[in-house]
């Protein structure tokens, strides 16, 4: 999901809102959303004030013109509130801002963290599994870069998932990471194998067979202080499911600097079409969707930067 620059539309035309929310830039997406909702800036200011967020009409005007961009914590909070006022998917405007100027492409600490239960269904099963792993729900880590590789076998079922994950601590004493896996419907999660392969070792594991969920604790090989970074490698060997797989979804409960997902298919079982997509919640309609083309190695790839909390993935059709 590489970001593309989109110029101002010719006079008399209006960019498609769904498209510009995907491609940006921020000021054009904001201007298009305002036009689509038919709200004057002073009315937007009033709606924000009712939510306890105070932004001047001048600032709003500058944001939609591209003369300034939200940078301060209060301004970034206002962008999240704007998404509610303009009835946009959560994170759709925030992600277009990307990293703050003058800083590396790490997630802004002001991006809200969503609970795991908002990103995985059934939510109650997530809460029950987390209760089996005592400790803070927020593991104190933000993703800088995450490269994930998914392999699909000759029978159309997921074989394995491999992750290279660079993280940064935002408080002292961080010594673990929680990796969450949800298999395809009907799979036997008792057969899912967790691999801790680089700079970490396996800790406790909790499983919920009825919802195909596994939460694995990965213990870091050192205790991190605030601002320190760490690279860990881990993976899951998938359990067989009754039916071929049709998608892989990654949930982000906090801001993410960069995410790369590659899905590789067996040459004997190639899909007829593939799409990348983004959703705000499980079961929700995608607010981004784009067709992908298989490469010479029978794979497809997406890359995204400056992600707000969301669900991001690749889907495919067998016929």
Ordered list of secondary-structure elements with their pairings:
Elements: H1 17-23, H2 26-37, H3 41-50, H4 57-65, H5 73-85, H6 94-97, H7 123-131, E1 141-152, E2 158-169, E3 174-182, E4 193-198, E5 200-208, E6 213-224, E7 229-237, E8 247-252, E9 256-265, E10 273-279, E11 288-292, E12 299-307, E13 310-317
Parallel strand pairs: 1-9
Antiparallel strand pairs: 1-2, 2-7, 3-6, 4-7, 5-6, 8-13, 9-12, 10-11, 10-13
Helix pairs in contact: 1-2
What does this structure look like?
20% of the residues lie in helices and 36% in strands. The protein has 319 residues and is α+β, with helices and mostly antiparallel strands. A hairpin with an 8-residue loop joins strand 10 and strand 11.
What descriptors fit this protein?
13 strands, 20% helix, 319 residues, 6-stranded mixed β-sheet, Immunoglobulin-like, 7 helices, 434 Repressor (Amino-terminal Domain), alpha+beta, globular
């Amino acid at each position: 999901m590489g970001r593309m620059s989109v110029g101002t539309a010719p006079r008399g035309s209006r960019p498609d809102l769904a498209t510009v929310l995907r491609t940006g830039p921020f000021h054009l997406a904001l201007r298009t959303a305002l036009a689509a909702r038919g709200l004057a800036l002073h009315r937007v200011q009033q709606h924000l004030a009712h939510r306890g967020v105070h932004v001047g009409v001048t600032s709003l005007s500058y944001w939609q013109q591209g003369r300034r961009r939200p940078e301060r914590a209060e301004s970034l909070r206002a962008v999240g509130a704007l998404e509610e006022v303009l009835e946009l998917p959560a994170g759709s405007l925030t992600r277009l801002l990307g990293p703050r100027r003058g800083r590396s492409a790490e997630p802004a600490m002001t991006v809200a963290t969503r609970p795991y239960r908002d990103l995985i269904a059934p939510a109650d099963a997530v809460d029950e599994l987390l209760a089996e792993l005592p400790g803070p729900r927020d593991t104190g880590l933000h993703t800088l870069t995450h490269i994930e590789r998914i392999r699909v076998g000759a029978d159309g079922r997921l074989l394995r998932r491999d992750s290279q994950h660079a993280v940064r601590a935002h408080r002292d004493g961080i010594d673990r990471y929680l990796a969450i896996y949800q298999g395809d419907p009907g799979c036997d999660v008792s057969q899912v194998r967790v691999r801790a392969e680089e700079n970490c070792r396996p800790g406790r594991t909790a499983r919920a067979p009825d919802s195909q969920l596994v939460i694995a604790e990965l213990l870091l090989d050192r205790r991190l202080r605030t601002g320190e970074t760490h690279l860990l490698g881990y993976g899951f060997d998938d359990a067989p499911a009754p039916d071929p797989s049709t998608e892989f979804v990654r949930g982000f409960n906090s801001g993410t600097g960069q995410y790369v997902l590659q899905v590789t298919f067996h040459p004997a079982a190639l899909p007829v079409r593939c799409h990348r997509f983004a959703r705000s919640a499980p079961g929700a309609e995608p607010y981004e969707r784009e067709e992908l083309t298989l490469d010479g190695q029978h794979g497809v790839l997406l890359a995204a930067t400056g992600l707000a909390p969301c669900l991001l993935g690749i889907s495919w059709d067998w016929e």
